[in-house]
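Lab notebook: predicted structure, single chain.

Context: the supervisor wants predicted structures on file for every construct in the current expression panel, including those that have not yet been purified. This is the next one on the list. No modifications to the sequence; it matches the entry in the shared construct table.
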Amino acid sequence: MELTGNGVSPGIAVGQALVMERERVPVFRLLLAPDAVEREVQRLLRAVAASRKQLEAIKARLSREVGALHAYIFDAQLLMLEDPLLRDRAAGIVRQDHVNAEWALRQVSEQLHALFDGFTDEYLKERSSDLDDVLGRVLLNLAGAADGPSLARLPGPVVLVAQDLTPSEAAELDWAKVMGIALDGGSRTYHTAILARSRGIPAVAGLRDATQRVPPGALVVLDGTQGRLVVEPSEPVVAGFRALRERQQRREISLQSTRGEPAASRDGVRVALLANAEFAEEAATAMQYGAEGIGLFRSEYLLGRGSLDEERQYELYRRLLDQMHPHPVTVRVWDLGPEDIAPGGPSSPNPALGPRALRMLSRAPGAFRPQLRALLRAAVHGPLRILFPFLRGASDLAEVRAFLAETAQELESEGRVYAAELPVGVMIEIPSAALTLGQLAPAADFFSIGTNDLIQYLLAVDRADPRVASLYEPLHPAVLALLVTAFDQARAAGRPVGVCGEMAGDPLQSLVLAGLGARELSMSPTAIPRVKQVLRAADLAHVREATLRALRLSSAAAVESHLRTELHEALAAADAGES
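Prediction complete. Output recorded below exactly as produced.
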């Protein structure tokens, strides 16, 4: 039997399945006598205090074992414990309704889950798992079961199969005995997935019903690269996976020897390979795979960690710069919608086309000012670059430039130390910006093409909708024509241009981008070695000629066939390295 999900941490694990079933604490509604209400409130507050102490201990232990950046995950849970929406509201329900603390927490849970469900951003919606983790811990403390069953002592090397794995459970795991992790739910943005990647543990999420279908103790093969879980495989299948794992391990050793080598083509063109990141924890992984910086730090993911205030952002950006020293870090300004800035408010009927990102600047400047202040201050500690997303053209850039200058003047008047010269870039993801890139150039220091949204808007395809996913074609002739226009305008204006979309991490498509003029490609860290290999085997002048000839073709399939034929030598070199 084979189950399929999403690979969230690469690698292969072969071992016995340990199926984890979590029992929830039963909750009853009790009516309290008036003179018992305050005692119940104090009982609630003691449970919250005990939960805080336990989380702080988990954070300290994790910091010792894998570093402070990974322990930073639990700051969000600690903030939840202190949040009036949880603690004070629960105490208020006890006082108002004369009910027990457990029932009050249940009411708060339902209200907060409704709030999380209103978010459009998948990462923010998934932070409800943090809420469940926190509330579950408080309930255990209310029940006097704080020292209950622990995952710190596993029976032996296992592949852990679970519905989900809360952050505190993941932190308490005996990772030395975890060969792999299989989750019914989750995604690559789950904290557990981040921890698995940081420790090099294969993981698959989104398996839906693995906990129901995998017999406890069964032999399983988990492929965290392809997102597969094979249950009770035959001996030949096991042997095949073990051989594949050995090849991958040898490949990893080989890649380590080329980590410090540049990505330079056969005709001498140098291309910088950087990493995309959502979390500061990924800096170590980026360096491991030879990234020459962070080309796209998606800062909106910080919202799930309570990191909106200026000081917390400043410290995080500064640590990220320290982690990547001496390489540059490019931070994209909040790419948010109104429902993210003001939870519970009205959402757009079409978030991709509505009041998004810097379209919110005039409506909610208070959401952007702390971030810009933090970025200006952090930039004195290293080569930090700021990237403005979702701009239509020159008038939008003028507005955000003015806001940035106003923010800098505010810091100046306060006597704060900040970087007076901060490289400002524009993310090209709207076709109108790509077509008028030359007009943007005088006020922009660099450009980064976000191919994910650019293709979506150009081809009118929702890339998240499986019904039309096949129509999302990065090598469509219209996409190539628009990229040629953008690159040529940037070259004429003397402005550097890179790519931070998924095209950058695909060997064939990365060749096309470099051939057209991209001198910086930002991608998932694990994609860097293969992209480097294919670039080192290519002649980019030939790549450009082949790509321009492809513009005459009528379909993406024809373009891909043409390019694979023209560039087969470089692609074969990369394939040979992979095998």
